[in-house]
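Batch job 17 of 40 flagged for manual review because the log was empty.
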Amino acid sequence: MAVPPRVVHQRRATITALPLYYSGQLFKKQSGEKDFKKFYGELRGAALFLYEDVKQDTYTERLDLDQLKSMDLDAPFKKMAPAIFTLTTGTKEVKLRIDNADTGEEWRGYILTVAKKEIPSTLQLMPGQLLHLKETLAQEKKRTAGLGPNPPLPPRPAFLSSSSLHTSTSSETDNSSHGMPSCFFSVSRQEAEQMLETNPEYGNIILRPSSRTNSYGLTMRQLTNSGPVMKNYRVTSIPNSGFIIELDSPVKVPSLNAVISYVLEKTEYRLQPYSPSEPYDTTIEKPIMPSSTATSSTSKIKTIPKAKVQPIVHKDVPVQSPVKSIDNEYVIPEDECKNKKSDCLMGSSI
């Protein structure tokens, strides 16, 4: 049973999460290929999605136009001849052929408009077609204005040399504040593969920045019967909606952590996120107080002087001779007699 066109359109809109600007039949040939291959193309946002036929809901190929350098017409414009364009993006060249020259001119207008964010001045289009182009340009500018800059990248791994830095780290911050997985590193594809190859005991999955705006790369090292194999996947950010893991059947997830969770589940947890081990101490020693601290602490202690107590000096007390009484008569002691000689004399006379 054939899938209704409306359902196919809804599925494509969900998978790509981008607005549709233009569509139609075209032929595409990679650099080095001999023949053109027929596709049904959809221009959504700044990307050209290619389907094997009009009923396919999952795209076969995707050509990103945000890094388009040029789009050249191979031969002068002729009404009765097909239009063949050479698109150059970075180091990649792709040829597109549209059998109808007028339709080819429309394709050229839409592709250049979304890629350069301006309408080319040399287009041979009708006023109504130019009006649609203006509406597309306004919609695309509004869409890209809400994307904002890429989130700040986390710190670069310390065990990588700074000479191999391929990405800017001027705005790097702690990844925990941005909900980044622990296996996210600001490295290139080559560096990620080297990390996984050199230290397989640390894990098998690294999430990294991609060369394309608002997207990430997922580098994985998997063991096969013929040995370890490196695989790289693209994860595209969808504004306010989540992320798309670009597989044969694209998967939409709400966050980058969900990307890692999906990969772990699909690999039956035989792979693990890359996490470098850190050294730990195995002995605990008694700390030694620094000399400066000991001196300062000692100087603050006040010395309390000891009290000086004079020894008790005992004076010799003369021993008095016992006073003898004669016949119950009162006798004045000799001391008193010395002080009072007169009284003693008087007493003796009595």
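Reviewer: the log was empty due to a logging misconfiguration, but the result itself is present. The longest helix spans residues 127-145. Unflagging and moving on to job 18.
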